[in-house]
């Protein structure tokens, strides 16, 4: 379950279902964001541009996002145990990715809250907003394109 458990409204119930279908000794792997949550490079630029062009706010309720239940090794371990899964290994690490400016634009226009807000704009405003973001990203120092969030990993078995 790579980067998905925190998007499920009731992760405990989901893990209990995983436990139900696992054979004795069966395993599950989980990868989730650690703390603090780090925004993608350019996120503030997108936010300003979307606000300037009058994009609607993101309609996805934050209540669905359950990262706070699993963003540390201890929290993930407790969550797994609450579903009668035995944590074998829990650890943190870092994802490291150097984004290009064009990748950041392509990602934002096709995924997540930025996309959901962007599509609320009329096509001409949408194109102008994207162009404004491209212009602002163009002057960002290369060092700001490094994305290095903490990640929490877990391996557990059916007890």
Summarize the structure.
This protein has six helices and five strands; from the N terminus they run αβααββαααββ.
- CATH-defined architecture: 3-Layer(aba) Sandwich
State the separation between the terminal residues, measured CA to CA.
Answer: 18 Å
Question: Spans with pLDDT under 50 lasting ≥5 residues?
Answer: none
What is the quaternary state of this protein?
single chain
Word description of this protein:
By secondary structure, this protein is α+β, with helices and mostly antiparallel strands. It has a single domain (5-158), classed as Rossmann fold. 40% of the residues lie in helices and 19% in strands. The protein has 6 helices and 5 strands; from the N terminus they run H-E-H-H-E-E-H-H-H-E-E. It has helices at residues 11-21, 43-52, 73-82, 101-110, 112-118, 123-138, and strands at residues 27-33, 85-94, 97-98, 146-147, 150-158. The strands form 2 sheets. It has a 3-stranded antiparallel sheet with strand order 1-5-2. It has a two-stranded antiparallel ribbon with strand order 3-4. Helix 4 (101-110) runs antiparallel to helix 6 (123-138). The radius of gyration is 19 Å and the shape is elongated. The protein starts with 10 loop residues before the first helix and ends with a strand. The model has no long low-confidence stretch (mean pLDDT 95).
